[in-house]
Amino acid sequence: MTTALQMTATQVNDFIAASIPAFKDIGCRVEDADGLQVRVRQPYSESQLRPGGSISGPTMMALADTAMYALILSRLGPVALAVTQNLNINFLRKPRNADLLADARFLRLGKRAAVIEVLILVDGEDEPVAHVTGTYAIPEHAIPAITPSGATVA
Amino acid sequence: MTTALQMTATQVNDFIAASIPAFKDIGCRVEDADGLQVRVRQPYSESQLRPGGSISGPTMMALADTAMYALILSRLGPVALAVTQNLNINFLRKPRNADLLADARFLRLGKRAAVIEVLILVDGEDEPVAHVTGTYAIPEHAIPAITPSGATVA
Amino acid sequence: MTTALQMTATQVNDFIAASIPAFKDIGCRVEDADGLQVRVRQPYSESQLRPGGSISGPTMMALADTAMYALILSRLGPVALAVTQNLNINFLRKPRNADLLADARFLRLGKRAAVIEVLILVDGEDEPVAHVTGTYAIPEHAIPAITPSGATVA
Amino acid sequence: MTTALQMTATQVNDFIAASIPAFKDIGCRVEDADGLQVRVRQPYSESQLRPGGSISGPTMMALADTAMYALILSRLGPVALAVTQNLNINFLRKPRNADLLADARFLRLGKRAAVIEVLILVDGEDEPVAHVTGTYAIPEHAIPAITPSGATVA
User: Fold this and answer.
1) Which residue range is the domain that position C149 belongs to?
2) N or C: which end of chain C has fewer CB within 10 A?
3) Which carries the bigger pLDDT value, residue C18 or residue A47?
4) What is the pTM for the complete model shown?
5) Residue range B69-79, pLDDT digits in tens
């Protein structure tokens, strides 16, 4: 699906770093992006801990939101001004204190709205620590809409 | 993971058919169940249509709820009286008028709560028409808790 | 807010009854509708029971979906073909076996999407048995958008 | 409902400030708490802005999570170690750049789980900018369970 990719991982990374200072400050990095899936890494920091000593829920929610935004940019390019409409997160288990990875992919990308799934993982482990679904409103100008497998839809 | 399976697909099917008359009336059937994943088939019927002629949202929500219940039964056996706490569904695309399949799996099964993911598909198609996550409260008696990969957790 | 009301409760009721046979079959009725809020009543029936003898989750999900649809019709009129995008339900307590009421109101009604809240109550009781939020996609033609208090927004 | 209150607003505020450094750093403050409802204020800061110049989604999600935690503390006291299981947020409108208020209340407080609703508002405005529901797991020791109106339940 060569037409899916609008920005590379490096381009998405630089775009977010330039527009969201906190992204760079906390050392987040877009590691992979191909227009259909992205991976964002968030380095471990003690400032992310909640009472009790494990990584906080808001840390994971912010990472998931960033990964969804990176996926949208990767697919639609820098001109797209998409906004989150809804986010639903299930916390599955207490994460080990280590880097977090957020893997985002489209469940649907229509002309007016996208539905995205994000798995939050601890680097080096297989079981996700949180599962997220979110919907994005897509600005009203012509963009190619795709299914999760990359097929263009009406 | 031999200890995971508490009821076979046939046993789960018969148990639900005996306890939820509508399940049998509409021809639903548990096709696969192994304690970690289940598949439930719902035959197409014109009575499921919403205005506009496509399969209704409540039809898909009911099917997802049934699949979650079947998964719980498959894993915990017939004595478990689990109840849904939360269900979140994203409708992804208009389903073709055909049999629906619901594939459910554990995102987490703890001692007191389970988180389950369900994909609703149209028979013969790859892209899901709806994505569901739900949480179940587990009755308070000892059960083996597992991770999605089948490992037992504390 | 005289411009809010596009269909009366009776008109919404008749429209749904004509387009969703099951609505009439199970005796549902739109009792109130003013373009900003609606109330839908669902008579108690033993066919709604889940194993254990209380009203099933799918029964409440279907009622909530109907109430959201009734609210959209009440505000936008019969030409609107809105579709549910997302529904999130929290089950709060086991309902007594009696008529259920669904009270729906707009959290937001924009030009392209509506966010609706529904409380499911047992007739005669104050505490809701379920809380629902849902989003609807609005068809692309000019409609007046309102805030929950009835003010028109851009 | 005199028995509902376990910690005052000041006590909850001091407890969170002591255990979550960021809470104090960004100037958050628990303004009201009575065991059934709480209000948390988050002062406006440019560091909260997303690309485009409005307050970011993660800022609102973190505030909602804090308000839920404050409500739990207010009701259960400082010994309670509750954890978020699920959070669902609908973004309703772009907030004006000003202080945010989060008003949280119980939809249900059972022995093992709480369901909480949070409205995020801009100080001085009536319409919420975001609506949140969340579930909390309650640690396993005896606590008085209440309904939203303050009645004790089994």
Assistant:
1) 2-153
2) C
3) C18
4) 0.89
5) 999 999 998 86
